[in-house]
Automatic annotation (TrEMBL):
Residues 1-41 are annotated as: Disordered. Residues 114-141 form a coiled coil. GO terms for molecular function: dynein intermediate chain binding. One of its GO terms (cellular component) is cytoplasmic dynein complex. Signal peptide: none annotated. Residues 1-10 have a biased composition (Basic and acidic residues). It comes from Anopheles quadriannulatus. This is Dynein light chain.
């Protein structure tokens, strides 16, 4: 014989399942259905091994063709593919950087851009962003081979204050270069610098 405590325990046990909303609550035991598990059957270490092998095979494999690039555009592992270039065995640039020409171009560009500019202090940040982007684009238009450009523009108010602009860099003194130019107007000043870094 079952005791009263065992009967109470049986009533308290919860049954997990999905009940048909049109059926009776008494038919809970007969209409039980469980969801299939979505957890992968393979272990996590096996999945990690497979993904690392896949990435390494793509890195060490042949260069990607245009069709493979289009297919793998939205693939998560396509960001790890290293671009491959043919060796030219040429150490020097065919179109080397010319400092004197670019210095005069940079000064002329600043004067034409800022001579009729109405300075507003709240828009100084936007002015610096636009100038740096335009300067970098002007340098790119000259198509010096194997060079990368970094443009930095500083804009400030003239309020009888002292100002010092200093930059340091670690580079190749024969191939890398830096051009700096200043522009002064009664309400503001601009210091623009462009670093040209040789990229083999």
């Amino acid at each position: 014989m079952k005791s009263a405590k065992d009967g109470e325990k049986a009533k308290r046990t919860k049954k997990i399942g999905f009940v048909d909303p049109q059926g009776d609550s008494e038919a809970l035991d007969t209409r039980k259905s469980y969801r299939k598990s979505t957890y992968p059957r393979e272990s996590l270490s096996a999945l990690a091994r497979k993904s690392s092998v896949l990435i390494l095979s793509r890195l060490m494999g042949p260069p990607m063709t245009s069709s493979r690039i289009d297919r793998g555009l939205y693939d998560r592992t396509s960001m790890y593919v290293v671009p491959r270039f043919q060796n030219t065995f040429r150490m020097e640039s065919k179109n080397p950087f010319r400092r004197e020409v670019m210095q005069s171009m940079m000064g002329h560009f600043l004067h034409t851009y800022l001579d009729e500019y109405k300075y507003v202090a709240k828009r100084a940040k936007r002015l610096a962003e636009n100038l740096s982007e335009e300067l970098r684009n002007q340098f790119k238009l000259c198509q010096f081979e194997r060079y990368r450009y970094v443009a930095l523009v500083t804009v400030g108010d003239k309020k009888m204050q002292n100002f010092r602009c200093v930059a340091r860099a670690l580079w190749d003194p024969e191939k890398d270069d830096c051009i700096s130019c200043t522009y002064e107007a009664p309400p503001f000043f601009v210091v623009a610098s462009v670093w040209t870094v040789y990229y083999e």
